[in-house]
Design goal:
alpha+beta; about 160 residues; Aminopeptidase
Length: about 160
């Protein structure tokens, strides 16, 4: 059955393979196995007959802001709407939690622009800079584009 759901702990190794593939392709930053276990509850996955075909996570920064991370779709499952379904799942969760804005750092801004995200400056995310960016090996030469989406509270999308 093809659907979006929370991952099982028994799938974290498969999730790691999916994340490693996307890292090797240059789409995302690496994630350790320990990070995946620690943050598994932040994730949604899309499963098909071959296993995990996609994933995404919603990482809460503050009561007003959350980050969409690790949006990955397996190569053979791309261009079938799975990325949009995964993105919609984390946006719906953010709305349910009444978080007014979600952001993403991406190398594929066109996908997010089609979903209503707008480009911003990384300086508009001081919490992210302090918490994560300052520790990143690409801090001085970041190639990701920060984007944000406003989520009016009380509206369903």
């Amino acid at each position: 059955m093809h659907r979006i759901r929370k991952p099982k702990l028994s799938e974290v190794l498969e999730l790691k393979k999916l994340v490693d593939y996307a890292y090797k392709m240059g789409f995302i930053l690496p994630r350790t196995l320990e990070e995946l276990y620690e943050n598994v509850r932040d994730f949604y996955v899309y499963a098909d007959e071959r296993g995990l075909a996609g994933c995404v996570s919603l990482h809460i920064d503050t009561d007003r802001l959350a980050e969409i991370r690790t949006l990955v779709v397996r190569e053979d499952a791309q261009r079938k709407g799975i990325g949009s379904l995964l993105l919609n799942a984390v946006i719906a969760e953010a709305r349910d939690l009444e978080i007014p804005q979600v952001y993403v750092l991406t190398r594929v801004p066109e996908f997010f622009e089609k979903k209503g995200f707008r480009r911003i400056s990384i300086e508009q995310l001081p919490y992210k800079i302090r918490k994560d960016c300052a520790r990143c090996p690409k801090f001085d030469n970041c190639d990701e584009i920060p984007m944000i989406l406003d989520l009016p509270i009380g509206e369903k999308g």
